[in-house]
């Protein structure tokens, strides 16, 4: 049965992806999930430490979010787009209340990349400028605009030419940013913590410094919280940690409560002037459909009422010293542990070590994956409803996995960096 699914990938979808799944031993077909657990079609249970790359902050199939979905599904799942949508308004109003400062207006779409596309267009349109400044190692999605501001050549090379007038600067480096700022910069786009770049936490003065430079040059500050947003870092939005109010805030992933795909960009009034020229200057047929909007509102309510950001902070404070202990014990395998709340990166000395740890964890029925732009880093982004005893179990499994790598590390081939 499960091999049939991989055969289907091979024959009808992506043969190369099928080979990758096989090579990594990921030959289990998912059937359902609950809380922090995914269950395959043979009833085997897996503890999910990657949380669908940040989608399942509220856990798999949260009962309140599912109930909201069922209600809306039976009433009006998609929009006529001619009559107005109360579900969109309710979500936009909630986002305006929950996001910092005067972030007021929301545009809804269906994914993280689309939220980034919208933000880039709104920034260029509202400033009348061309240049977009982004960071090395960033990941903003794989559509053309989002890909152009992402920071890994591997994903860009075959698709040139990309969107023009994009400059990349090293992440976390305000001096480098200062050097490229000018009155032609429409926007600086940045993740508060680089997710796919390897869970890279910038210095505390980084976001405030970007804010100041954007103010000085009249550029829009776009913060991409597609991965950090909705609680994982111990704050509902990671920017809250820095006290900074961006001009455009991109959301997706956990905004959909693990039930529906939805993306959003929330903006301050001055950037929204781009819509004055034409209210439909940017739009999406499915974006903010009633089903997704109703689900996202419930996801936000659950996140706030169940105090999931606080939970991430507390569990993260418990987890971090456990992981540091592993680093101290196996310094030749595990080079660094970093993160905030329950967004944590484990950086291994070699990509091969990270790969073997992933396989060892999988053999112990634990799901954890490396980050897309840095294969030496395994990212922990579990559902925030994970229990402390589940985390304890994960730490035990990680220790066993790292010990297994330590025992054979001399035999593992050194990495080759293809990017
Ligand atoms: C920070 C960030 N931005 C944008 C995206 C793209 O989101 P999507 O895959 O929904 O297009 C991702 C996806 O991982 C992300 O981590």
The helix/strand series, from N terminus to C terminus, equals: HHEEEHHHEHEHHEHEHEEEHHHEEHEEEH
The CATH architecture of the largest domain is 3-Layer(aba) Sandwich
How many strands in all?
15
**What would the CATH topology of the largest domain be?**
Aspartate Aminotransferase, domain 2
Q: Which percent range describes the beta-strand content? A: 15-25%
CATH superfamily of the largest domain: Type I PLP-dependent aspartate aminotransferase-like (Major domain)
Integer-rounded radius of gyration: 21 Å
Indicate the low-confidence ranges by residue numbers.
none
Distance between the termini: 36 Å
Bound molecule types: pyridoxal-5'-phosphate
Shape: globular
Question: What's the CATH C level of the largest domain?
Answer: Alpha Beta
Major sheet attributes: 7 strands, mixed
Instruction: Give the strand order, joined by hyphens, for the main sheet.
Output: 4-10-9-8-7-5-6
Structurally, the number of domains stands at 2
Short description:
The protein has 419 residues and is an alpha/beta fold.
Structural description of this entry:
Strand 2 and strand 3 form a beta hairpin. Helix 5 runs parallel beside helix 12 and helix 13 runs parallel beside helix 15. With 419 residues, this protein is an alpha/beta fold. The protein has a seven-stranded mixed β-sheet with strand order 4-10-9-8-7-5-6, with helices on both faces. Strands 1-2-3-13 form a four-stranded mixed β-sheet. Strands 11-12-15-14 form a four-stranded antiparallel β-sheet, covered by helices on one side. Helix content is 41%, strand content 17%. The protein is globular, with a radius of gyration of 21 Å. The model has no long low-confidence stretch (mean pLDDT 96). 50% of the residues are buried. It folds into two domains: 129 residues, Aspartate Aminotransferase, domain 1; 243 residues, Type I PLP-dependent aspartate aminotransferase-like (Major domain) (Aspartate Aminotransferase, domain 2, 3-Layer(aba) Sandwich). Pyridoxal-5'-phosphate (PLP) binds next to helix 6.
């Amino acid at each position: 049965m499960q091999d049939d699914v991989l055969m289907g990938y091979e024959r009808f979808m992506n043969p190369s992806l099928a080979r990758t799944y096989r090579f990594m031993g990921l030959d289990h077909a998912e059937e359902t999930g609950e809380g922090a657990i995914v269950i395959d079609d043979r009833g085997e249970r897996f503890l999910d430490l990657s949380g669908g790359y940040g989608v399942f902050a509220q856990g798999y199939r949260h009962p309140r979010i599912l109930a909201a979905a069922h209600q809306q599904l039976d009433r009006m799942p998609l929009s006529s787009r001619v009559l107005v949508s109360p579900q969109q308004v309710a979500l936009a109003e909630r986002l305006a209340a929950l996001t910092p400062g005067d972030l007021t207006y929301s545009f809804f779409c269906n994914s993280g990349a689309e939220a980034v596309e919208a933000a880039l267009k709104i920034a260029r349109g509202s400033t009348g400028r061309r240049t977009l400044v982004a960071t090395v190692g960033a990941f903003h999605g794989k559509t053309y605009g989002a890909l152009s501001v992402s920071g890994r050549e591997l994903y860009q090379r075959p698709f040139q030419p990309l969107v023009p007038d994009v400059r990349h600067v090293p992440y976390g480096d305000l001096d480098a940013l200062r050097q490229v700022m000018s009155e032609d910069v429409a926007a600086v786009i940045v993740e508060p913590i680089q997710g796919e770049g390897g869970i890279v936490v910038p210095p505390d003065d980084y976001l405030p410094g970007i804010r100041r430079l954007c103010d000085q040059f009249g550029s829009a500050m776009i913060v991409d919280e597609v991965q950090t947003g909705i609680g994982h870092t111990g704050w509902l939005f990671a920017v809250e940690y820095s006290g900074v109010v961006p001009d455009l805030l991109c959301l997706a992933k956990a905004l959909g409560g693990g039930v529906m795909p939805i993306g959003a960009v929330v903006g301050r009034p001055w950037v929204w002037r781009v819509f004055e020229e034409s209210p439909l200057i940017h739009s999406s047929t499915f974006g903010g459909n009633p089903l997704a909007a109703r689900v996202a509102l419930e996801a936000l309510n659950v996140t706030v009422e169940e105090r999931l950001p606080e939970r991430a902070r507390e569990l993260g404070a418990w987890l971090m010293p456990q992981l540091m202990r592993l680093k101290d014990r196996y310094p030749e395998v595990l080079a660094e542990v970093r993160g905030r709340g329950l967004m944590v990166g484990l950086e291994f000395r070699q990509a091969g070590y990270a790969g073997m740890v992933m396989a060892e964890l999988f053999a112990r029925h634990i799901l954890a994956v490396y980050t897309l732009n840095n294969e030496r880093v395994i990212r922990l982004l579990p559902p925030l409803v994970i229990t402390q005893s589940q985390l304890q179990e994960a730490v035990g499994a990680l220790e066993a996995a790292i010990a297994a790598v330590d025992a054979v590390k001399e035999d593992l081939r050194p990495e080759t960096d293809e990017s």
